[in-house]
Amino acid sequence: MLKNMFKKSNPKSEIYAPVNGKIVPIEDVPDPVFSQKMMGEGIAIIPSEGKAYAPVDGEVIQIPDTKHAIGIRADDGSEILIHIGLETVSLDGQGFNVLVNTGDTVSVGQPLMEFDLDYIKNHASDIITPIVITNSKDTDKNYTMTDEKEGKIGETVIITASS
């Protein structure tokens, strides 16, 4: 019992799949802003359904007017951007239904957004969904991407951050 009192807290934190689908390396995203990691370290998922859920416990810090993305600050300080599809900013909010507001506290597996996958397939350049740590260059954390090929919401750890 005393041994547990002096144990260091786990320096690792986990980011879970926010959407169900096929996991692909960020380098395979057909957009250089993501594939060249200009926005930060990350991974991508080709969604199999139009629902996005919180990948971490944290706070919603950004929802663009175009509703195509959500930014969350995890409890460990990592800032995570979930960007639904590519060139979806041009859809001007069409096909997106955001279920949270900036400032909301969220927990892993909590619904964030519904999106019309068919509409995005037909009106945007791609449905691939990058999940990026936008402040990865500003932290002392190391990010490890999963080797898993399929992501399941709230179950599959897609990124592990360690100090």
UniProtKB/TrEMBL annotation:
This is PTS glucose transporter subunit IIA. It is found in: Cytoplasm. Residues 31-135 form the PTS EIIA type-1 domain. It comes from Virgibacillus byunsanensis. Gene3D superfamilies: Glucose Permease (Domain IIA) (2.70.70.10). It holds the Pfam family PTS_EIIA_1. The keyword Kinase applies. The keyword Transferase applies. Coiled coil: none annotated. Keywords: Kinase, Phosphotransferase system, Sugar transport, Transferase, Transport.
